[in-house]
C-alpha cells in the first residue's frame, strides 16, 4: 500500500488534532467536519479498503469501534447518540485508501423523514 495522508499523520510528518493514540489506532478530528463532533479512528496497520480486511484483523476492527465509543463518552455525546461510517472504494465515497472510521455526533443524524416525525410526536 502506498503512503497516504493517514500514514503521514501516524508518522507525525503532518499535524493532526489527536484525540487518542496507542500502538493499534489513532483518532483525530476531521479537518472538514460534517457535524459538531466529527473525528476519524484509523488503524496504524495499513489496510486499504474494507475489502482488504483479513480474519486476523477482526479484533482490530472491533477495537476501532470501542475506541470510538470511548471517545464519544469522553466528549459527552455517547448517550445522545452518534453515527459511525466506513466508506469503501469510489462508489462508497472512499477518498483515502487506508480504512478509517468516521464518527459523527452533536446533532440529530437520523434518516430525515424519521427526524421530521419525531418533531411532530
TrEMBL record:
It comes from the Bacteria. A motif (Histidine triad motif) lies at residues 98-102. PROSITE patterns: HIT_1 (PS00892), HIT_2 (PS51084). InterPro entries: Histidine_triad_CS, Histidine_triad_HIT, HIT-like, HIT-like_sf. It holds the Pfam family HIT. Gene3D superfamilies: HIT-like. Residues 5-114 form the HIT domain. Coiled coil: none annotated. This is Histidine triad nucleotide-binding protein.
